[in-house]
């Protein structure tokens, strides 16, 4: 049964293959998890009565199940619908600088497994393919799940990805420049391959399950060792023609500034990345230290380290003010390891943003965009890679 359903499910998820009312309902369920019939009607534009008939059919064929959801504080559970968790699974794979991480989830949006495999920092595609395949085989064996139920594999990559699935530049993944992700992984995994840049995946995760749930227009700004970002407009993650939309770290602030890894001078990344901060901190301590330790010392009251965070946040706020002036989003999600510093980083970002952006506080409706920290500070890339498959975004063909 599961095989038959997942075969059917696969076709229904691809909007280029089918655009029937049934497929639209299935895609709404896949993209949103547990939802009410009213929400499905809103998302799909179908009449309530049509949605009800379709849901009844899908339940009869065991593709959809009823679930109870409980809003916090409200006693009565509401009835929602979800894809049958047994109808299929999907995988998210993060190709990071020195690890591969794999998350397995079912089509009802439950995470079933999450494993990280540390690797040397210059691992190559051949090795990644072998390691990923092995890890995936083990996961399916361990959970006694049929590989035939796997609907697709999403890849979150530490590099810009062109729409055809090639890695544009491999500054984080040396040796991967020009690598065709579909040609690399599809022959081995034998499943549809989806891919996007890791920050775009992070934005998708925050939109589907995290800090940006319910927002169709927002900007994700990732303050990590490097700087990443993503723009979500009308519910879609913008990729751009060459896959570099949202690379805020490489906005040039000072054309005479230091040389950046991208080849330009004075990029934002040089002023607010974790790498830049740790460089100064390590010189002061005359030893190496990680971001978690750095933040702990700053939060413990070290004024010098607090100053470094403040300066980084001010640079980030100036950069974001430009982004805000251009895009005018209602929400900024600040993610990455630096976001764990809380108000030490958030307060100066907000105030610098307000000082430099076009729309000022007091300008009335929509004048104050919200700044929130991301929900998935630790595995957003991988969760977003799962989201690529569930939302059928970034399919390589
Ligand atoms: Zn740069």
TrEMBL record:
PROSITE patterns: ROK
Taxonomic source organism: Peteryoungia aggregata LMG 23059
Entry protein name: NBD/HSP70 family sugar kinase
Keywords annotated in UniProt: Kinase, Transferase
Residues covered by the HTH marR-type domain: 20-69
Pfam families assigned to the protein according to its UniProt record, in alphabetical order: MarR_2, ROK
Protein family (similarity comment): Belongs to the ROK (NagC/XylR) family.
Keyword Secreted among record annotations: no
Family annotation (InterPro entries): ATPase_NBD, HTH_MarR-typ, ROK, ROK_cs, WH-like_DNA-bd_sf, WH_DNA-bd_sf
